[in-house]
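RECORD TYPE: inverse folding
INPUT: structure tokens
STRUCTURE:
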């Protein structure tokens, strides 16, 4: 692997007697889509929170784009391009689809280019927003109110809002949750198109989606990584099959 974009070393976290992250060491490649799977309560969302800075670690080191960010707060990590989509992004219901993305672009602009000349700003933000909508397949809906979008399209809109922050790594926490088959397929197609352009960490329960999308998969059980490898390696791993015993949709 070339230099990883994200390195996790010996991450541990307990809530009282409950160890939710147990000595997790992982590297995320600079252009890989890395899925994290595991049974309910395995500690996947907690791990994402430890990467973004929302969940403070007991022990461990997080290195992002070559910099030790272990002690940096959430906003400082976000400014460096560590971008979480879902569960934090707020879609503004009174705005159109395009306005939502342009507003996200403006918010990013304000924090990173404070002295940019005002004149060229609006057109530039608009172009950036349109390009992001193109990438997620929502350009035809740009002028519609955000509230008119389906649940699946709203997830796509949230990805467009994440893209305008110029992410160096996208963290996607259960993007397919609550989606029907058709909506899932649309989102798989969007993520497939983004794959290779942005490194991504994907936490997801939909195994069919995960095994098609991921370059590598890590399996978390009781806060520990019990397996990490290509989809084929993970599928064949006896410890993984044991952990998923009885779950018929395991790919
Ligand atoms: N703030 C907290 N205080 C106490 N326990 C917590 C806290 N946050 C999470 N936990 C516990 O940590 C464990 C891991 O939770 P987490 O949400 O990270 O799992 P998960 O793998 O994302 O689960 P799911 O797939 O169901 O979303 C669970 O047992 C949960 O109850």
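DESIGNED SEQUENCE:
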């Amino acid at each position: 692997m070339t230099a990883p974009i994200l390195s996790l070393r010996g991450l541990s976290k307990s809530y009282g007697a409950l160890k939710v992250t147990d000595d997790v060491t992982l590297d995320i490649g600079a252009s890989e889509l890395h899925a994290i799977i595991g049974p309910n309560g395995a500690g996947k969302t907690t791990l994402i929170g430890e990467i973004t800075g929302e969940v403070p670690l007991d022990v461990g080191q997080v290195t992002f784009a070559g910099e030790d960010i272990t002690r940096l707060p959430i906003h400082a990590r976000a400014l460096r391009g560590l971008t979480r989509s879902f569960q934090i992004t707020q879609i503004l219901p009174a705005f159109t689809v395009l306005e939502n993305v342009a507003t996200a672009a403006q918010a990013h602009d304000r924090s990173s280019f404070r002295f940019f000349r005002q004149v060229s700003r609006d057109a530039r933000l608009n172009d950036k927003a349109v390009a992001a909508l193109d990438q997620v397949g929502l350009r035809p809906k740009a002028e519609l109110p955000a509230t008119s979008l389906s649940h699946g399209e709203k997830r796509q809109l949230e990805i467009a809002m994440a893209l305008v922050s110029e992410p160096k790594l996208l963290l996607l926490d259960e993007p397919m949750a609550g989606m029907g088959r058709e909506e899932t397929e649309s989102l798989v197609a969007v993520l497939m198109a983004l794959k290779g352009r942005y490194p991504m960490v994907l936490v997801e329960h939909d195994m069919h989606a995960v095994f098609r999308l991921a370059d590598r998969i890590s399996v978390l059980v009781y806060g520990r990584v019990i397996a990490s490898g290509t989809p084929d390696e993970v599928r064949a791993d006896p410890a993984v099959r044991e952990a998923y015993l009885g779950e018929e949709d395991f790919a």
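NOTES: The CA atoms of residues 93 and 147 lie 6 Å apart.
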